[in-house]
Amino acid sequence: MATIKVVCGIIFNEDKVFLCRRSPHKSLAGYWEFPGGKIESGEKEEDSLSRELFEELGMSVEIKEHFKTVVHNYDLFTIELIAYICQFQKASYKLTDHDQYEWVSKNNLNQWNLAPADIPIAEALSKC
Ligand SMILES: Nc1nc2c([nH]c(=O)n2[C@H]2C[C@H](O)[C@@H](COP(=O)(O)OP(=O)(O)OP(=O)(O)O)O2)c(=O)[nH]1
């Protein structure tokens, strides 16, 4: 089964974490996720994350450190989801791939309909 490498940001602003909901026209539509996207060939993970956040949300962040990598098997593909802790800087919130966003408490992440690959990340976050 094909494996795709996706980088995502756990973006903090004070004690809140950013989540956004995938638009109806996207794969995994309606699920909430940590924003990011597929790593293009030859691209560094951090560069890919900065690019995706700017393209999808008009957002700038400071990338702090790698947090967790999850390998998850969906029906049609396998994902390697690489999560980085980030500090929010600014955003236009001009959404291109999402139809909603929220700043949420990291201890309430289990109340959101997260993409299945994101659940182990949310669980690890609630414990730290
Ligand atoms: N960005 C992101 N994608 C995730 C997460 N969890 C998860 O299962 N995915 C899945 C959804 C998609 O199938 C895939 C990422 O695709 P994408 O559509 O966001 O990436 P992209 O913008 O580079 O892709 P494309 O639509 O331009 O082809 O990974 C997550 O937390 N963030």
From TrEMBL:
Signal peptide: none
Any one Gene Ontology BP term: DNA replication
Residue ranges occupied by any Nudix hydrolase domain in the UniProt entry: 2-127
Pfam families named among the record's database cross-references: NUDIX_4 (PF14815)
Catalytic function, reaction form: 8-oxo-dGTP + H2O = 8-oxo-dGMP + diphosphate + H(+); 8-oxo-GTP + H2O = 8-oxo-GMP + diphosphate + H(+)
Keywords: DNA damage, DNA repair, DNA replication, Hydrolase, Magnesium, Metal-binding, Mutator protein
UniProt xrefs under InterPro entries: MutT-like, MutY_C, Nudix_hydrolase, NUDIX_hydrolase-like_dom_sf, NUDIX_hydrolase_dom
Source superkingdom: Bacteria
One annotated GO molecular function: 8-oxo-7,8-dihydrodeoxyguanosine triphosphate pyrophosphatase activity
Keyword Metal-binding: yes
Assigned EC number: 3.6.1.55
Cofactor: Mg(2+)
PANTHER family: 8-OXO-DGTP DIPHOSPHATASE, NUDIX HYDROLASE FAMILY PROTEIN
Similarity comment text for this entry: Belongs to the Nudix hydrolase family.
Protein name per UniProt: 8-oxo-dGTP diphosphatase
